[in-house]
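All the exercises in this workshop are built on plain-text protein records. Instead of coordinates, the fold is spelled out as a row of discrete tokens. Once this layout is familiar, the rest of the handout is easier to follow. The record below serves as our worked example for the rest of this section.
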Amino acid sequence: MTKLDKRTERLTRALRNAGVRITRQRAALLHVIAQADDHPEAVELHRRAEIDVPGISLSTVYRTLTALEAQGVIHRHQFEGAPARFEHAATEHHDHMIDVDTGDVIEFRSDRIERMQAEIAAEMGYEIVHHRLELYVQKKKADGA
């Protein structure tokens, strides 16, 4: 079974567990979500799904995303000043950099940052249960520009 097949199966199972019927439109949307390795907005997912199933409603996309989020199989990210974006929950922990000029979302992982966060929390008498780090970035301009 391919990675895409596994993702699609996981998403389908989550919707069924939520009591949501798998229609042709939802099946197409689940396939689109399973293929996504970026952080698409609902409108972008709708656009992609509509290629396979013309006429899929945006409200179906939103309801499906809400059900998948409630089942814990996707994460919703609300980056500053932008519509919500979505990604698979089955990925390893990572943080995000958001390019303020292009809107691109870059995933990264830093063991050094993870250690520092844990150390800071411990020094203050806490233990981290969950965290999210977002860095809003801009490409450095060349010197003299």
About this structure: Helices lie at 3-17, 24-35, 42-52, 58-70, 111-123.
